[in-house]
Amino acid sequence: KIVNLKELKNSDGNFNKTQRIELNALLHIDYYNLTKFYGTVKFDEGVFGVFEYGERGCLRHVLNDKVSYPEETFMDWEFKISVMYDIAKGMSYLHASSIQVHGRLKSTNCVVDNRMVVKITDFGCNAFLSSSKDLWTAPEHLRNQDTSQKGDVYSFAIISQEIILRKSTFYTQSCCDRSEKLSRVMTSCLRPDLNFETASEKELEVYMMIRSCWDEDPEKRPDFKKVENCLGKAISKIHNQDESYMDNMIRRLQMYSRNLEHLVEERTALYKAERDRADCLNFMLLPGPVVKSLKETGVVEPELYDEVTIYFSDIVGFTTLCQYSTPMEVVDMLNDIYKGFDSIVDHHDVYKVETIGDAYMVASGLPKRNGNRHAVDICRMALDILAFMGTFQLRHLPGIPVWIRIGVHSGPCAAGVVGMKMPRYCLFGDTVNTASRMESTGHR
């Protein structure tokens, strides 16, 4: 069973009488909105309290995760009220118990289980854990480092604002700095933002309750029993009837189930879109039959083709052109030329094999066999490329003609995929070598 370990600082495991009484009181706490305390354990690193584990993490994490728990389909007003209701019920029970006060109530000390029930943790253990000055801390306790039940009510109000707005803790447009917020809470009654002007009638009642909970005067703050009753009435108004604990839980699980279905559909659509993008890229780099074979079996068997035609071309005087061009101008030149070549290739039954520098290689008759039409298709493509180069103008050297050499040869050829990382579809045989030599030895 997974549990949560909380370090009990300043303890070596030899508990005094006061500490034993406190730990024994924790063991007797058993309420569904409070995490169960199982005992203590000692490791080399120190002594730890063993608490019940919240499978979905702390409430702060759930509020921040707007992908898994979207506002529109999951974190609606009804669910937010239910979350506040869970906390209020847990605190009402805790205040009535021998523990009496939490002292460290905040959204990171509220955990969510796999049934979407919020449970309060980190209560008790006051002999081991000291309270700190946080944005959830009541102003009177920021001044005197004390704890009280009314201070817990103030902390609940700050958590409630987090739940409603799903923004940063103690969100206010007038101040962003944490230290400044703490200072102004103590000196000028600064409070987080809640938009009363745009609130609906059902929201306004809850907003008024939250405002009373963070009142500057602790005596004017309601106790958790009143808070619990107020939120219970708000839930009843939503459903026009009183809702039992089981009804509430079933409703939450149904809501979470609907949200999961929506999330699965959304993620599936994203997966399909990414898969299609990957397939499109693969089909641009490798022949279609090769891509399908790699996806299905992970291997591609080399093939021997009896009749293919291979085309090679390169730019005449490419080295000289590079001397009068910057590196970026060379890239732009090759990109302009090869985009034109690629558009021509698309109109013929040929397959572009690769480009290396200024060399351009095309084949016909593989990987899709086309009888004895391979030579005709390559030659027609070559004539179209020559026509294109006849009108091509360099952007950075206008008026300078660009010539290409072309070599073509027909014959048998072997083809296969080479390599695992960045695999390449390569052609082998004398036909390839002959076509390459015809191109390199060609004359104008």
How would you explain this protein's 3D organization?
With 444 residues, this protein is an alpha+beta fold. The chain has helices spanning 17-27, 59-64, 77-96, 139-144, 149-165, 178-188, 201-213, 224-239, 245-285, 288-296, 318-323, 327-345, 374-391, 430-440; strands at 3-7, 37-43, 46-52, 110-112, 118-120, 303-315, 351-356, 359-364, 404-418, 424-428. It has 2 domains: 3-263, Transferase(Phosphotransferase) domain 1 (Transferase(Phosphotransferase), domain 1, Orthogonal Bundle); 299-440, Nucleotide cyclase, GGDEF domain (Alpha-Beta Plaits), CATH 3.30.70.1230. The strands form 3 sheets. Strands 7-8-6-9-10 form a 5-stranded antiparallel sheet. A 3-stranded antiparallel sheet has the order 1-3-2, covered by helices on one side. It has a two-stranded antiparallel sheet with strand order 4-5. α3 (77-96) runs antiparallel to α5 and α12 crosses α13 (374-391). It is elongated. The N and C termini lie far apart (81 Å). The mean pLDDT is 85.
Any key phrases for this structure?
cell membrane; three-stranded antiparallel β-sheet; nucleotide-binding; Ser-Thr/Tyr_kinase_cat_dom; protein kinase activity; 46% helix; 10 strands; Alpha-Beta Plaits; alpha+beta; five-stranded antiparallel β-sheet; 2 domains; glycoprotein; 444 residues; elongated; Transferase(Phosphotransferase), domain 1
Helix count equals 14
Main β-sheet, spatial strand arrangement: 7-8-6-9-10
Outline the biggest β-sheet: 5 strands, antiparallel
Average the pLDDT over all residues and give the rounded result.
85
Shape: elongated
Helix content: 40-55%
| C-alpha termini separation | 81 Å
**Poorly predicted runs:** none
Q: State the fourth-level CATH superfamily of the largest domain.
A: Transferase(Phosphotransferase) domain 1
Structural class by helix and strand composition: alpha+beta
Which percent band covers the strand fraction? Answer: 15-25%
Give the count of structural domains: 2
Q: What's the number of extended β-strand segments?
A: 10
From the 3D structure, determine the CATH topology of the largest domain. Transferase(Phosphotransferase), domain 1
Write down the secondary-structure element order: EHEEHHEEHHHHHHHEHHEEHEEH
